[in-house]
Amino acid sequence: MTSAKPQQTVRDLILATSGYLEDKGVESARMEAERLLADVLGLARIELYFQFDRPVLGPELDRYRDFVRRRGSGEPMQTILGETEFYSHVFKVRPGVFIPRPETERLVELAVGLISPPDHRLLAPVAVEIGCGTGVIGVCLALDVPRLVVEAVDVNPAAVELTQDNAHAAGVGARVHVHQGSRFDPLPEHLRGTVDLLVSNPPYIRTAEIAGLQTEVRDHDPHTALDGGADGLDFYRALAHGMGPWLRPGGAIALEIGADQGQAVAEILGVSGARDVEVHQDYAGRDRVVIARMPDTEDDNG
Ligand code: GLN
Fold first, then answer.
1. Which has the minimum average pLDDT: 119-123, 174-178, 269-273?
2. What is the distance in A from the centroid of ligand 1 to the CA of 110?
3. Residue 6: is it exposed, middle or buried by C-beta count within 10 angstroms (0-12/13-18/19+)?
4. Which of 73, 94, 119 is the last residue of a domain?
5. Which atom of ligand 1 lies at the shortest distance from residue 201's CA?
6. What domain count does the chain have?
7. What is the full DSSP assignment across 186-251?
8. What is the distance between the alpha carbons of residues 131 and 187, in angstroms, rounded to a whole number?
9. Does the beta carbon of 226 sit less than 6 angstroms from any atom of ligand 1?
10. pLDDT value, residue 302
11. Distance in angstroms (rounded) separating the CA atoms of residues 23 and 17
């Protein structure tokens, strides 16, 4: 960034930072420069345009420079700002917890379709989410499906806390219960055979591919949320192996997958007794979600 001028305005900073971040390989450099500056000044991004000549001074300038330095060294914008947008809601994020990706909105949409419209049974529908991270999937499901109770699990205590915070902030704290532990282990026993939906965006990157990911992902997302083992499919095998006792007859499954994993994950689910297995695409046209259902009754072999 230039420091030639005694006073830098909003315009100067946006221009200098856009160039700097672009050189560092940031794709939407100008947009990110604006978002970081808007955050420092407590403005909406659009409001910067009405304050182009405003000088940025003292602590605001220091804070902005710190943000830009961090972004330039590969820290994701989301952890710098402490929040991200997902499914039209704002969620808190924090370092060490997987940052939600836009393609996961497709998983939420498809999952909502599997449990709504809610039936009129006396009991509220129940979804189990394994590996909840920031909590965006479970919280969005609870927001979209009336009365839905979400039992969310994550092995990472920071994710458990963050999911709780995000659920409370969204007003669904009472319907999103978060458990720390591995996969199905921490679920309360009384849920056995009652779960209407199993949903997960599990780690699915092949171990050998992690080193080649972009800095923002490789050095900032927790590897427990990325690493799916040698073929990327370890977590799907574990979910398919463990889900049987928890899902009710006719219960649904919705899993995010890597773009080349549709067939393999469909097979893994099929072998574990799931029916109606379908692979769905994200908005970029890549395979992204597999959905399926358990048989309606135990003796239904058709
Ligand atoms: N979609 C993520 C990425 O590309 C990976 C998510 C995952 O492994 N669940 O970084």
1. 119-123
2. 18
3. exposed
4. 73
5. 9
6. 2
7. TS-GGGTTTEEEEEE----B-GGGGGGS-HHHHTTS-GGGTB--TTS-HHHHHHHHHSTTTEEEEE
8. 13
9. yes
10. 43
11. 10
Cβ-proximal residues to 104 (8 Å cutoff; 6+ apart), any chain: 86, 136, 137, 201, 256
Q: Indicate which CATH number applies to the domain containing 66.
A: 1.10.8
Give CA–CA dist 89/76, Å, rounded: 19
Hunting for tokens 């972009």 — which residue is that?
214
Query: What's the burial of 123, exposed, middle or buried (CB within 10 Å: 0-12/13-18/19+)?
Result: exposed
Give the pLDDT confidence of 180-200 residue by residue, as tens digits.
Answer: 999 999 999 999 999 999 999
Query: What pLDDT is attached to residue 123?
Result: 79
Helices (H) and strands (E) in the chain, counts: 10, 11
| CATH number for 130 | 3.40.50.150
Largest Cα span, the chain:
79
- In angstroms, what is the C-alpha Rg of the chain? 22
SS3 for 83? strand
Distance 119 CA to ligand 1 centre (A): 33
Tokens of 107: 């998983």
266: its two tokens: 């469909």
Q: d(Cα 64, Cα 32) in Å, to the nearest integer?
A: 12
Q: Which residues have C-beta within 8 Å of that of residue 24, sequence separation ≥ 6?
A: 71, 72, 73, 74
Task: Write out the catalytic residue numbers.
Answer: 98, 201-202
* Residue among 3, 4, 45, 10 nearest 28 (CA): 45
State the average pLDDT over residues 141-158.
96
Mean pLDDT over the full length of the chain: 94
User: 295 and 147, same structural domain?
Assistant: yes
Atom 9 in ligand 1: residue holding the nearest Cα: 203
For residue 226, give the ligand 1 atom closest to its CA.
8
Q: Which residues contact 23 (CB under 8 A, 6 or more apart)?
A: none
Domain span at residue 51? 10-73
Question: pTM higher than 0.85, yes or no?
Answer: yes
